[in-house]
Amino acid sequence: MKPVPNTCPKIQHSCHSLFLASQHNAKRWRSILALVGILAASIDSAPAASIIVNAVGTVNENGKTILEATGNSMDSTTFASIIATAYANDTGGVWDFDGANFGVNAGETITLNYGASQANSVILGLSGTNGINQGNVVGEATSGSFELGLGGDASTRVFTLSTLMSSIGIFSLDRNDASRTSVLSVTFLDDTTASTSGADGDNTYFQILSATGTNYIKSFSLTQNNFIRYDDLGFVVASSAPEPSRALLLMLGTAGLLVRRRRQSSPVLSSVISV
User: Fold this and answer.
1) How far is residue 78 CA from its own chain's centroid?
2) Hey, which of 128, 158, 167, 231 would disulfide with 221, CB 3.0 to 4.6 Å?
3) Nearest Cα to 91, choosing from 145, 18, 164, 14?
4) Alpha-carbon distance 173 to 262, whole Å?
5) Distance (Å) of CA 5 to CA 12, 13, 88
């Protein structure tokens, strides 16, 4: 009789290769699923919008006499023109604080629908020790009849942005008190900051800061030493800033392409995945 060839080493080698491929593939999928889980959790854990606001396309409709803060990136007249264009092109808008009465606490959010179509939105996350509310002081507002008030104290209010901005502007209102001061500050993508100065509570001041190049604005804050009210928060979104949902889809799509490429380049791995 002819000796039976010993195929055990080959079988053992194939089984071992399949086992290693399976372990490698499982580890890769665990990593991908973990990434998806983290991204989904970050979305699910985002606080629901406290209020939803439809932005408008004009500033200073009441024709107030405006002074310009030191450090402004442009004057109020130029900004009014830019805002009108941005609104028409669905790339900006103005929160004029009119409409239904509102109050937003620290840790809550404001969703601003902007542009003529109202199809786009930006979420402002409010942080600090106290919130904001709607003020109603006759004769103060730069547009309409209502303004932004501070709830609780005059501490700094910080607003984080879900969409990057190229410009942020706001009017600090006349409180007939020159000892009251107001500062607009922004934080850029590279974590550098900029601030206005010189705005007091004895006049209506316009304050605005803008990005340089693609170093866009990711958050802004309002700081005052005493109660200051504000009106007409105007903004222009960054032209190349992707929406968060699109960024998520892009990341997941890239992960899928990497897995597919690995499957195509590894016959053993492909057989394991298809089992």
Assistant:
1) 24
2) 158
3) 164
4) 61
5) 14, 16, 81
* Percent over 90 (pLDDT), the chain: 67
Q: What is the pLDDT of residues 32-51, one digit of tens each?
A: 555 445 444 444 444 445 89
pLDDT attached to residue 50: 86
pLDDT value at position 272?
A: 37
Question: What pLDDT is stored for residue 268 in this prediction?
Answer: 44
Tell me what pLDDT residue 259 has: 44
Show the tokens assigned to 123: 């979420």
pLDDT digits (tens, 9 = 90+) for 115-137: 999 999 999 999 999 999 999 99
Identify any residues that bridge with 70 across adjacent strands, giving them in sequence order.
Answer: 197
The pLDDT value given to residue 275: 36
CA R_g for the chain: 27
Specify the DSSP element, H or E, that contains 269.
Answer: helix 267-274
Q: What is the spatial distance between Cα 171 and Cα 268, in angstroms, rounded to a whole number?
A: 65
Structure tokens of 15?
């089984």
Q: What are all long-range contacts of 152-156, with beta carbons under 8 Å and residues at least 24 apart?
A: 153/129, 154/224, 154/225, 154/226, 154/227, 154/228, 155/128, 155/129, 155/130, 156/128, 156/221, 156/222, 156/223
Nearest residue to 15 (alpha-carbon basis) of 263, 264, 272, 265? 272
| 59: amino acid identity, one letter | V
227: DSSP letter: -
CATH architecture of structural domain 49-244: Sandwich (2.60)
Element (H, E) at 273: helix 267-274
Q: List Cα–Cα distances, 273 to 10, 32, 35, 186, 211, in angstroms.
A: 22, 15, 20, 49, 48
Tokens of 206: 């316009």
